[in-house]
Amino acid sequence: MFYNQIDMDWLQKLALLSQDEGLEIDAEPHPTGETLPACHTARSTPTATRLLDNISHVTLQGGRKIPVLKVLLTSVCEYNCAYCPFRAGRDFRRATFQPEELARAFLQIYNAGLVKGLFLSSGIAGGGIRTQDRLIATAEVLRNKLGFQGYLHLKLMPGAEPAQVEQAVALASRVSINLEMPGNQYLGQWAPRKLPQNRLLEPLQLAHQAALKHQNHPYRRWISLSTQFVVGIGETDAELLQTTAYLYRQLGLSRVYYSAFRPIEDTPLENHPAENPQRALRLYQASFLLRDYGFRFDELPLNPDGRLALEVDPKTAWAQRYLTQPLEVNRASREELLRIPGIGPKSAQAIIRARRISRLRDLQQLRQLGVNTERAAPYLLLDGRHPAQQLTLAF
User: pTM of the predicted model, to two decimals?
Assistant: First the structure.
């Protein structure tokens, strides 16, 4: 059996190097809050359990989801970020993979059919440039020596050189660097070794330029850029979302992830309260409005304190404030349809196709087109009439 043939040495390393996968997110929630669980099947042995606990899911462009192994090249780190379990000086057992060792270990798992991709990050040991070289070396073994052509997410290190970023983009399906905080004031307080923020932003800018030059490389069908923020240690939603809007608009990022802070023992923030996961969900939903629904940052329904409401999703909050007259579904533009709660890009397109054939007159037709009519009904007219399930508009 496969699990009994696994080299226990690298399996133990794998457990040590994946002990806090929540810090590196590669899967976003569904707009309604649904998330994919980690892959926890075939738990027939302790070995299988330990291995499968390090497998999670990633969303590819187009929405397809695949299982990936998420692992660090090393948990040794010279940075002292206040929220990180791998920070310098924290007392725990650390481990390191050599590039070829990790590449071959991953390929064993891949060939067994347990995963379809790899998410490879690392603690920073010997500086960002040296660490980036080791990440690239692992990717080169996988691609050029072992012939792996599947999904590969490579992290970019602070201060990575332009040639390294270009090589990472050429090898990877996705590249990312965690911006962590929306500005130098927060980095200075909680992650001072990462200052200035340009050391984090410049690799993303370089990756954007490199991605445009590598449109025809073998892994282009998946290539994308992403970043992640820690949420809940002083920043406002407005600060996070203004940065998010810039990243989508100027650098072409396909994903921005939000990790709700949770305290970790033996770190400076161990007594800081955990962030409400609902706040991270609302940030994701607002981020979708910026990325997929044509909203501008200044249209987001932020409260005077720069926060999103927790009790209602941002799209509904916007509609309650500004969509004071219901829209005629048979005449509304795609842009107008996308402003209606319960209508997404796919259902908006389905409505446009359907009304070319016949007029839409009842909610059942909209349900068949994928519309969440419970959410949409208060804001619609169907052939000049309020839907039968019309609710009271909130002002």
Answer: 0.88
